[in-house]
Structure formats: structure tokens, C-alpha cells
């Protein structure tokens, strides 16, 4: 059976400085997008009603209705966010009405329906779906989502410190944090709505990236403990480990991307945002497994480590990487 990249020998580690620059640029763009959003909208992300509280009302018109007409009926420039939903011939829209302080969420939904009836007389419509989320619930969801990501980082650090060494755990956390920051940057840059499904996608990306990085680290440890490994250049051994796991990294990522692409094309608008976030996360996670995780391990060893990578130090001596 044909094996892709069976004899791979690419100089990934030798090109780590280029990867540093590339990642630094992407990180700066991500942070700039978040800062710009704060300056223009007051929020670094485009939180949906799951997090801000309010009413999500999906309406279906009997005849074609222009989005501008619907927006004018709901207040013109002061209208809540409106997006077309589903196929164009279904004439469906989603209205996201924020929840004002002291207002009843049921009253907000009823007011939106009344505005549509008054602003578009003679246009028959039906409410297909109504979702109501309280502001306190939304705030709690934001906190729990952040805590879930933070706890996963801490548990990863502990696991890898016990399973490998502490330096492996730090390098894995750096690579995973890199993936999360860049994914959040894409969400901020394109003002994609943050919903519960988006958080689920972020946590899935986190798990995927960690799994991929641990596979590479396991191979590094195996090669570092092979007979004669101490006589070889540590950079060459790390690069060899990355190349040996390259078939698994690329094929796993490719298979996942194929499924996500099918979901994006055929899954409809409900699953599309989730799949789109996952696609970028898998791409950046594969990139970080190859270029960032192992390179971070080398830099940690070079600046703060002692002895040989993969070897528990017995006495202080100059770093070998």
C-alpha cells in the first residue's frame, strides 16, 4: 500500500525562524482585529444572543422581501442585526434583537413581530423559530467558556509534565495557545458570530491540536532515547521526529478537512459557521504541530534547559541545543 511522505526529509526545524515571523504576523493581525472591534463596537468579538442575551427570531415570508425593506420596518439605522437565512427562494431572515436592561425577553420578541406586521402590511409571514436568552445566562456562558479553555491548558501542562517532562508541557501549551489565538483572530477579523457552536468548535480545535502535538513529542522522546542518540545533533533528531510523524499529521488533517468541507457545502447555514471555524483550526493546528510545537521545545531547552532534550538533567551544564 502506498504511503504518503514515507521517506520525508524536509528541513522543518531549520526553517523555524521563518515560521516564527509568519506566526508573529498572524498574531499581530489577530490582536489588531480585536482592538479595532473594541474601538468601533465596544466588544472584541461579535457575541451572539447566546452570550449577550436577547431574542433570536427566524421569520419566513410568503413572498420575496428585500432585506432593506425589512430593516426599514424594524427601525432603519437603529434596526437590530438582520441576516438572510437559508436559500434565497425561502425568503427567510433571522432577526437578533438585543435585550435592554429591565426589559422582558418575551416582550422584545413580541415587539419585533409587531414591527414587522406594521412595517410590511400585506406581507404574510410566520415565525419559524424563537430563541430567548437572558443576559445573566449569556454572561455566565462567557465565563464558563473561558474557564473551559483555561482548565484544559492547566490539565495539559500537568499531564505532559508527568508523562514526559515539564518542558514538553510548556511547549504543547504554547503551540495550542498559538492555535486558539489565531482562530479567535479569524473570528474577530471577519466578525463571525460567537455562539455555543463556535465555542464547541474552539474546544474541538484545542483537543485536535494537543493530540497532534503529543504524537510528535512522543516520537521525539523515543528518538532521543535510542542508542547513540546523544552523539547526534538534537536539531536533526527533532527534525527527523517531525518528518516521521508527517504522514500521520497530514493524512489525519486531510481526512478531517474533507469531512468539514462536505459539512460546509452541504450542511446548511446552521452548521456552516461551526464547520468554517473548524476548517481554519485544523489547518493552523496541523501547521503548529509541524513548525511551532517542536520549535518551541527547542527554544525552551536552548534558553532555560540543561542537558539533552528528552533527558532529565542530573547536574547543571551548558545547554546542548
Describe the protein's architecture and organization:
Helix content is 63%, strand content 10%. It has eleven helices and six strands. The strands form two sheets. The protein has a four-stranded antiparallel sheet with strand order 3-4-2-5. The chain has a two-stranded parallel ribbon with strand order 1-6. A hairpin with a 6-residue loop joins strand 3 and strand 4 (92-98). The protein starts with 15 loop residues before the first helix and ends in a 17-residue tail after the last helix. Mean pLDDT is 81; it is low at 310-321.
Provide tags for this entry:
321 residues; alpha+beta; Multidrug efflux transporter AcrB transmembrane fold; Alpha-Beta Plaits; 4-stranded antiparallel beta sheet; 11 helices; elongated; disordered C terminus
Question: Secondary structure elements and their pairing?
Answer:
Layout: H1 16-41, E1 46-47, H2 49-52, E2 54-61, H3 67-73, E3 82-85, E4 92-98, H4 105-119, E5 125-133, H5 135-163, H6 166-189, E6 193-194, H7 196-224, H8 234-244, H9 246-266, H10 269-291, H11 293-304
Parallel strand pairs: 1-6
Antiparallel strand pairs: 2-4, 2-5, 3-4
Helix pairs in contact: 1-6, 5-6, 5-7, 6-7, 6-10, 6-11, 7-8, 7-10, 9-10
Portion of residues in helices? 55-70%
- Taking pLDDT < 50 over at least 5 consecutive residues as the criterion, the unreliable ranges are 310-321
SSE ordering:
HEHEHEEHEHHEHHHHH
- Put simply, the count of helices is 11
Strand residue content = 5-15%
CATH fold naming of the largest domain: Multidrug efflux transporter AcrB transmembrane fold
Amino acid at each position: 500500500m502506498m504511503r504518503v511522505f514515507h521517506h520525508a526529509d524536509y528541513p522543518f526545524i531549520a526553517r523555524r525562524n521563518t515560521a516564527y515571523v509568519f506566526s508573529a504576523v498572524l498574531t499581530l493581525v489577530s490582536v489588531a482585529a480585536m482592538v479595532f472591534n473594541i474601538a468601533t463596537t465596544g466588544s472584541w468579538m461579535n457575541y451572539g444572543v447566546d452570550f449577550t442575551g436577547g431574542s433570536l427570531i427566524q421569520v419566513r415570508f410568503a413572498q420575496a422581501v428585500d432585506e432593506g425593506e425589512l430593516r426599514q420596518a424594524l427601525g432603519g439605522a437603529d434596526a437590530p442585526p438582520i441576516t438572510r437565512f437559508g436559500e434565497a427562494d425561502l425568503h427567510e431572515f433571522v432577526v437578533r434583537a438585543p435585550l435592554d436592561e429591565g426589559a422582558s425577553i418575551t416582550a422584545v420578541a413580541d415587539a419585533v413581530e409587531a414591527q414587522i406586521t406594521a412595517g410590511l402590511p400585506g406581507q404574510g409571514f410566520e415565525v419559524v423559530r424563537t430563541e430567548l436568552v437572558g443576559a445573566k445566562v449569556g454572561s455566565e456562558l462567557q465565563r464558563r467558556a473561558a474557564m473551559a479553555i483555561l482548565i484544559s491548558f492547566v490539565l495539559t501542562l500537568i499531564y505532559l509534565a508527568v508523562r514526559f517532562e515539564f518542558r514538553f508541557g510548556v511547549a504543547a501549551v504554547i503551540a495550542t495557545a498559538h492555535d486558539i489565538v489565531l482562530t479567535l483572530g479569524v473570528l474577530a477579523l471577519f466578525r463571525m458570530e460567537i455562539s455555543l457552536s463556535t465555542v464547541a468548535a474552539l474546544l474541538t480545535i484545542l483537543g485536535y491540536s494537543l493530540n497532534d502535538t503529543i504524537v510528535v513529542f512522543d516520537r521525539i522522546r523515543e528518538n532521543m532515547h535510542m542508542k547513540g542518540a546523544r552523539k547526534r545533533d538534537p536539531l536533526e533528531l527533532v527534525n527527523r521526529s517531525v518528518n516521521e510523524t508527517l504522514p500521520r499529521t497530514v493524512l489525519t488533517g486531510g481526512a478531517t478537512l474533507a469531512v468539514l468541507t462536505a459539512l460546509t457545502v452541504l450542511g446548511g447555514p446552521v452548521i456552516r459557521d461551526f464547520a468554517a471555524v473548524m476548517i481554519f483550526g485544523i489547518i493552523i493546528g496541523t501547521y503548529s504541530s509541524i513548525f511551532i510545537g517542536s520549535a518551541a521545545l527547542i527554544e525552551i531547552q536552548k534558553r532555560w534547559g540543561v542537558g539533552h532534550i528528552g533527558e532529565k538533567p542530573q547536574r547543571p551544564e551548558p545547554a546542548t541545543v
